[in-house]
C-alpha cells in the first residue's frame, strides 16, 4: 500500500520529502529577493530616484514671492535664519539660500532660506556722558550700533563726552534705540580754560536762556572768556619778566662773588 502511495506522488513531492531543508532554504532565498525588489520600488517612489530639478534663484526676493516660486517648483523650504537685520537689504528679503541657485537636487530636499529681519534690533543706550569719546564709540560699536560719530565743541573737558544725540535729538541713557540710528557723541575739545563758575554758561544754562536773550548771553560769555585769557597772558608775561629779572640779579651776585674772590687772591699774592 505504501508503495502505491509513493507511486501516486509527483517527483517534486518526493524530492521535497527527501530534501526539506534545501526546499525551505530555496523558498527563504526567493522571499528575500522578492522583498528586496519591493523595497527598491518603494525607495524609488519615496526618494524620487533619477528625478532631479534645478533650484530656482530666489535671492533678493521678498519672502512671499520666493515661497510662491518654490511651491510652484514642487520644492520644500524652511527659514534657517530671520533674526539678523542688514540695512542694505529690504526687510523680509531672502538674503541667501542653500542649496545654491541653479544646482540640481531631488524634490525631497529642503531649501533653507536666510531672510532679513523685518525690523532692526532695539538696544538700550548705555551711560556715556563723562566717558572718553573713543571709549564711547568703541562701546557702541561693540553693542551693534552701525552709525556712530563724534563732534567736538569748545569745553574745558577735553576728550570727554558731553552729550549724546540720536537722529538729531538729545537722548538720555537707557533710551531704546535702533542699531541703525545715527548716533552722535558731542565731545569737549579742551580749548576753554577754567573760569569762575559764575562767568561760564554751561549747556543746561544755555538751553534755559530765552531765544531773544541768547545773543547777549553769548557775547557776555565770549567777553568773559577773552578777559580771562588776557589775564592769564598778562600773568604769564609778568612771570617771564620776573624770572628774567631774577636771573639778571643772580648773574650780578655771582659776578660780585667772583670779583671779591679775585680781590682776596690779589691781596694774598701781594703780601707774599
Structural description of this entry:
The chain has 272 residues and is α+β, with helices and mostly antiparallel strands. It folds into three domains: 52-115, Trypsin Inhibitor V, Chain A, CATH 3.30.10; 122-192, Trypsin Inhibitor V, Chain A (2-Layer Sandwich); 199-272. Helices cover 48% and strands 21% of the residues. It contains seven helices and eleven strands. The strands form four sheets. The protein has a four-stranded mixed beta sheet with strand order 7-11-8-9, with helices on one face. The protein has a three-stranded mixed beta sheet with strand order 2-5-3, covered by helices on one side. Strand 8 (161-166) and strand 9 form a beta hairpin. The N and C termini lie far apart (179 Å). Residues 196-201 and 204-214 have low confidence and may be disordered.
Amino acid at each position: 500500500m505504501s508503495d502505491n502511495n509513493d507511486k501516486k506522488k509527483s517527483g517534486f513531492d518526493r524530492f521535497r520529502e527527501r530534501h526539506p531543508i534545501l526546499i525551505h532554504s530555496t523558498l527563504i532565498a526567493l522571499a528575500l529577493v522578492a522583498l528586496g525588489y519591493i523595497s527598491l520600488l518603494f525607495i524609488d517612489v519615496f526618494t524620487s530616484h533619477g528625478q532631479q530639478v534645478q533650484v530656482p534663484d530666489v535671492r533678493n526676493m521678498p519672502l512671499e514671492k520666493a515661497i510662491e516660486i518654490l511651491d510652484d517648483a514642487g520644492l520644500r523650504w524652511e527659514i534657517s535664519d530671520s533674526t539678523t537685520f542688514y540695512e542694505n537689504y529690504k526687510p523680509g528679503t531672502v538674503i541667501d539660500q542653500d542649496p545654491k541657485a541653479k544646482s540640481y537636487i531631488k524634490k525631497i530636499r529642503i531649501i533653507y532660506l536666510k531672510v532679513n529681519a523685518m525690523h532692526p534690533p532695539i538696544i538700550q543706550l548705555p551711560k556715556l556722558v563723562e566717558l572718553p569719546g573713543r571709549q564711547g564709540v568703541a562701546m557702541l560699536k561693540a553693542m551693534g550700533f552701525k552709525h556712530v560719530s563724534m563732534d567736538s565743541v569748545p569745553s574745558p573737558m577735553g576728550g570727554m563726552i558731553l552729550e549724546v544725540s540720536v537722529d538729531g535729538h538729545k537722548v538720555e541713557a537707557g533710551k531704546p534705540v535702533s542699531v541703525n540710528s545715527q548716533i552722535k557723541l558731542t565731545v569737549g575739545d579742551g580749548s576753554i580754560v577754567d573760569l569762575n563758575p559764575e562767568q561760564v554758561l554751561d549747556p543746561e544754562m544755555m538751553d534755559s536762556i530765552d531765544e531773544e536773550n541768547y545773543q547777549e548771553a553769548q557775547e557776555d560769555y565770549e567777553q568773559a572768556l577773552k578777559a580771562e585769557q588776557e589775564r592769564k597772558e598778562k600773568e604769564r608775561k609778568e612771570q617771564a619778566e620776573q624770572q628774567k629779572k631774577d636771573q639778571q640779579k643772580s648773574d650780578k651776585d655771582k659776578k660780585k662773588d667772583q670779583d671779591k674772590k679775585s680781590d682776596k687772591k690779589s691781596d694774598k699774592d701781594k703780601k707774599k
